[in-house]
Design goal:
29% helix, single chain, two-stranded antiparallel ribbon, 9-stranded mixed beta sheet, globular, 23% strand, alpha/beta
Length: 277
C-alpha cells in the first residue's frame, strides 16, 4: 500500500490530466451586421484584417501557440474561401471542416449540432468573431469552463450570473445589462465529453422540432437551470479581448490591439520556429 488516500489519488489524476487539444470553431455566418458590404460580399468576416492579421489567422495562431493540435471548423457563407485560407496558414494543426449548407436560415445552434459526430473528445468551443490575447487560453483548456468578462458599454448579447463557487448559475440570452451581478459571455467554452453528450441530447430535441434559428446558449441556459450542465467561470479582462459584430467593433478592436504588447497579440509560431505578429 502506498499510503495515499483516495483524495490524494484523485487530485493526482486531475493534476496529470492533459490540457484539451481539440477546438471547434463556428464560422458559418455571413457577418451581415458589419455594415461594410463591399468587404463582406467578397470576404467572410473571419478573413477580415484586424490589427494586421485576419481574425482567422489570429485565432489559429493563438490555438497553435497553446497546444491545440486539431481544429474543426463549421463553415457556411463563402465556405471555400475559408477552407482555402486555413490551408495557407502555416501550422502543424490537423484541420477539418463541416459545411453548414443552411447557414442563411439557421443560427449557431444548428452549426454546433452539425459537429455531434465529428468530435468525440473534450474540446474548446468558440466563435469566429473573436480577437484575444493568446496568453488567456491556458486557463480555458480544461473542462468544463466558460470565459466571461465584466461588462463594458460596447458589449451586447448573452450574459450570465455566478454563484458563490464561481460557477455559472444562470444564462440571460436576452442580455439585460442593467443587472449588476451579470457578466458578459466571451462565446468561448471548454466541454468535457460527458457534458458534450448531454448537450447533444438537448440539441437533438431542439433541432427535431425545427428550432434551428436560435443560439446554442439557449440550450446551455436550459441545462444549467436543470442542474444538468455546470461551467466554472474564467475571467477574461475586458481590455484583452473583443467581439467583432459591426464595423465600429472592428475599428475599436484595431485600436485595442495597438495597445497590446506585440508578444501578447497572437503568439503564432510558424513551422520554422519563429513568431509571427
Amino acid at each position: 500500500m502506498s499510503g495515499k488516500s483516495s483524495t490524494d489519488l484523485g487530485q493526482q489524476d486531475v493534476n496529470q490530466s492533459p490540457p484539451v487539444s481539440t477546438a471547434l470553431l463556428l464560422a458559418a455566418g455571413a457577418g451581415t451586421r458589419l455594415n461594410c458590404a463591399a468587404e463582406t460580399e467578397a470576404t467572410p468576416k473571419c478573413l477580415l484584417d484586424v490589427g494586421g492579421l485576419s481574425i482567422l489567422e489570429r485565432l489559429v495562431g493563438s490555438l497553435s501557440a497553446n497546444g491545440i493540435c486539431r481544429l474543426v471548423i463549421v463553415t457556411g457563407y463563402m465556405e471555400k474561401r475559408i477552407r482555402d485560407a486555413v490551408t495557407q496558414i502555416v501550422s502543424d494543426m490537423q484541420i477539418e471542416t463541416i459545411e453548414n449548407s443552411d447557414y442563411a436560415t439557421t443560427n449557431n445552434i444548428y452549426s454546433l449540432w452539425l459537429a455531434r459526430y465529428k468530435i468525440r473528445e473534450p474540446f474548446l468551443l468558440f466563435e469566429s468573431d473573436l480577437v484575444f490575447e493568446a496568453s488567456l487560453l491556458p486557463k480555458m483548456l480544461a473542462p468544463d469552463k466558460a470565459a466571461i468578462s465584466t461588462i463594458l458599454p460596447w458589449m451586447n448579447g448573452t450574459t450570465v450570473s455566478l454563484n458563490c463557487r464561481q460557477k455559472i448559475e444562470s444564462f440571460n440570452v436576452m442580455g439585460l445589462f442593467n443587472q449588476r451581478d451579470q457578466f458578459k459571455t466571451v462565446n468561448m467554452y471548454c466541454l468535457s465529453l460527458e457534458s458534450w453528450d448531454r448537450i447533444i441530447s438537448q440539441l437533438d430535441e431542439h433541432i427535431s422540432v425545427g428550432r434551428t434559428s436560435s443560439y446554442y446558449e439557449v440550450v446551455f441556459s436550459e441545462m444549467v437551470a436543470e442542474n444538468d450542465l455546470e461551467f466554472e467561470a474564467v475571467i477574461f479582462p475586458n481590455d484583452r479581448w473583443y467581439e467583432i459584430d459591426t464595423h465600429a467593433d472592428r475599428q475599436a478592436a484595431n485600436k485595442l490591439l495597438a495597445s497590446w504588447p506585440t508578444d501578447r497579440i497572437s503568439g503564432y509560431k510558424d513551422t520554422q520556429g519563429g513568431t509571427r505578429q
